[in-house]
Amino acid sequence: MVIAQEGHCCASTKEAGRGTCRRLNGKKAYQQVLSLPSFQHTVPWWSLDASQHNAHLLPGGHAKGGVRQYLQGNKLQAVTAHFFHYKKPVAAISHGVVSAARSILL
59-103, pLDDT tens digit by residue? Predict the structure, then answer.
């Protein structure tokens, strides 16, 4: 599993998993996710190669100011378009559906 973000930064452990979702999913499970190498060493969207992966998941989100680059990110949409080109499964949740739909227009 590879976790990709807009840039080279690591996934935020301070903000991720707070609130209701964390309580519903359980603290123990969340701590296990934090220890995964793929969570500790994320890659930028533009570095993903659709031919090297089995599927593509675009999760949703409501981060204040953090969804704009997800919805308008040409780099992410281009990567998603390549997954469609290679006929790989593309799954999307919430705002991810908008990003996936926009990738088809490229």
Answer: 877 766 667 777 887 888 999 999 999 999 999 988 889 889 999
Counting other chains too, the contacts that 34-37 makes at CB distance below 8 Å and 24 or more residues apart are 36/1
Residue 87: alpha-carbon gap to chain centroid: 19
CA distance 6 to 80: 13
Does this model's pTM top 0.85? My answer is: no
Strand 43-44 and strand 4-5: the pairing is parallel
56 vs 67: CA distance, rounded Å: 18
DSSP 67-84: SHHHHH-HHHHHHHHHHH
